[in-house]
Amino acid sequence: MSETQRTVRTAAVIPAAGRGVRLGPGAPKALRTLSGTPMLVHAVRAMARSRAVSLVVVVAPPGGAAEVRNLLDEHSLPEKTEILVVPGGETRQESVRLGLAVLPDDIGIVLVHDAARPLVPVDTVDAVAAAVRDGAPAVVPALPVADTVKQVEPRTGGEPEPVIGTPERSVLRAVQTPQGFDRATLVEAHEKVGLEGEGATDDAGMAERLGVPVVVVPGHEEAFKVTRPLDLVLAEAVLARRRANDDF
Ligand code: CTP
Ligand code: MG
Question: What is the pTM of this model?
Answer without folding.
Answer: 0.95
